[in-house]
Amino acid sequence: MIHFLRLIRIKNLIIIALTMYAVRFFYFTIGGKINVDVLFEQLNFFLLTLSTVCIAAAGNIINDYFDVKADKINRPEKLIVTKYISKRKAIIWHWILNGFGFFIACYLSVFYNTFWYVFIHLLSINALWLYSVYFKRKFIIGNVLIALLTSLVILLSGFHFYHVCRYELHPILDAKISIPKSLDHAVMYWKNLFLDAGNFIFILCFFAFVLNLGREIVKDMEDVEGDKLLKAKTIPIILGAYSAKWIAILILSSVPIFYISFLTLNIKDHHLVHLIATLPVFTASSLVIISLILLISIQTTPKNLKVVDKIIKLAMLIGIMTPFYWWLL
Predict the structure, then answer these.
(1) How far apart are CA 16 and CA 22, in angstroms?
(2) What tens digit of pLDDT does each residue of 180-213 get?
């Protein structure tokens, strides 16, 4: 069982589920309402999360299935397929998980009378297959595709609330209050600001896309030797490690720049209060800055790059904790 959990990357799947429930938790702690039966919505959102996790797990399996040769060089200690689980069993689990996820998507599409659940799930299943078979080894395309699929998880959650459940916002603070002085008012201000026109969804999508794109390039830098064996055309192989490093730095730097710009444009005074109100985002941005400093200053060895990879992943995790942080305040 432990090897199967490692194969499907259970930690990453938990982050996906946590991200989706962070979106749900955010909306339901603001004071908005949905125009469908709440009990059915709770069940259906759980099923939506489960189907997304199943398809992501299947994508992880098929990725390892086609990467056995490279993983023997890049990550021999993490090799699962052929070492602990046969290729035959791996492909069977791939189809079982995809089938189960797609079955749930069909149910949701019928229940809500929309084709979008089926469409998005089919798109994800095929995109993950094509990524593992073909696009992963192509210049830039594979990196962008994975980053887009990660953002799609958040868009799917937003679609569920805004279009399927017909979510309605009930403002809890006058939007004209642009300089709230207390921490409570600052938190309420940011809640309303993030909810306005679905800002929370789009901002979270931006962070997810940028962080995953940068992280994918860092991972490609880790895996150069094995990827060469597969004749892959990744950024570090085509342009070199130095250029790949600076491309990753350029992409990742947009996160702290965006946060600082967003804070500066919306807040004119009492910056400390607002800094505390957005502490998870501030912490995530700070971790990204640390990863940037490390990328600039350290040698790009697999061991060092693994540390950068973990810091970026931690930044993602802390960033999506923002709704729960606001609830605690």
Answers:
(1) 10
(2) 567 777 777 777 777 665 677 888 888 999 999 9
> Could you identify the residue written with the tokens 């990753």?
248
Rounded-to-integer distance, Cα 51 and Cα 243, Å: 38
**First-to-last C-alpha distance (Å) of the chain:** 39
**CB neighbours of 173 closer than 8 A, spacing ≥ 6?**
180, 185, 188, 189, 191, 192
CB 259 within 8 A of CB 285: yes
The last residue of one of the domains, among 115, 149, 170, is 170
286: how many CB neighbours lie within 10 A of its CB? 14
Which residues of the chain are under the pLDDT cut of 70? 29-37, 71, 74, 76, 163, 166-181, 195-198, 268-271, 329
Instruction: Tell me the pLDDT tens digit for each residue of 165-177.
Output: 766 655 554 544 4
pLDDT of residue 103: 96
Backbone angles phi, psi at 271, to 5 degrees: -65, -35
Instruction: Write down the pTM of the prediction.
Output: 0.87
Q: What is the DSSP string of 18-35?
A: HHHHHHHHHHHTTT-B-S
Measure CA 59 to chain center.
14
Residue 320 DSSP symbol: T
Same-domain check for residues 24 and 136: yes
End-of-domain residue from the set 170, 204, 226: 170
Same domain membership, residue 277 and residue 162: no
- Residue 31 has a pLDDT of 56
The token duo for 211 is: 């962080």
**Judgement on whether residues 157 and 183 belong to the same structural domain of the protein:** no
